[in-house]
Amino acid sequence: MATHESDQAKKRIIAVAEIGVNYVFHLVACARIGFDSDYVDRYQNSVSADDLAFMTSHRERLTFGGGSGGDLVDILIGLPACLKLDSKTDFESYYSLLLQGCADNDFAGFLTHFAEPIRKLKDWWSAPHNEGLRELAPHRDIIRRLGDLTLRNYDAYADSVWPVERPKLERVASRINEAFASSDRIGEWEKLVGRVFKYDPYHIVLCSAIQNGPNANSIGYDRVVFFHDWPIGETLEFISHEVGTHLLIDDLKRAAASGQYDFAALYEAYECLAYHYNARLIGEGRLAYHRRMHNFRLDKYVAAYREVHGRDAGIDPYDLLMGGLEIMAKG
What we know:
The protein folds into 2 domains: 3-165, no CATH class; 248-331, no CATH class. Helix content is 59%, strand content 7%. The protein contains 16 helices and 6 strands.
């Protein structure tokens, strides 16, 4: 439900367990691409050795994090997660329609089949479209290979892995949902930054395969993938942070369109801006998930934002973002 239909209603945060999202992250985790943990040790044999070797041979193209990734990430992971593929039949349709589009140089069938989730992706960063999808044509053979390995290993996951992992995710989801049921965290964020969250509910898709790697991955404006096994207080803080990143996404896009800074610098500033606001919302001290942001110059950015905010308490988030960037650029 788009929130413009009822902006005054309390917008919900709901944690869920989805087989499709967990499966695509399971594949790259088992190949130790970006993730390495006890999970991999337990389940690596659930993916065929040949398929693991194939993914490993394309490690750079399947690696992601920090707002960017290789050219195969969206095909194997990003689009299936964003499009909410939730069965083997869904994956069969996805790869069949992609390959047919490559053959015809026309992806109308793909775009029509997934019209609703694609429509919602336009509110995030970008959405698939015919011109962009045509760039996949030269990669038809590797798309076919990715489709084959996804379908070939699905039954082993559904039969042997998911029945073990799903109850763990559902137990954590219950705790998250109980914690947020009595609060209006999205509404609090909206008041703090003067932005409207565009959808209700906001889904936290829990995943057990993504320990020791990128473990809070947005898959649309209304969906984010979260590692399930952090301390619950830290998890709740980080979910609040992600509410902020989604509310501020249009500010990041506006800053990127300005051409003043490269995207890596903007992304770092944007993540740190969300942390700055989150600290104002739930506590001025260092938040528990601070350690999850070790790749960013978080303390320096927070100091810069506090300096700018101190001069203008009512500053717009976009102006605060650009003010922090300006201070950081001066060293």
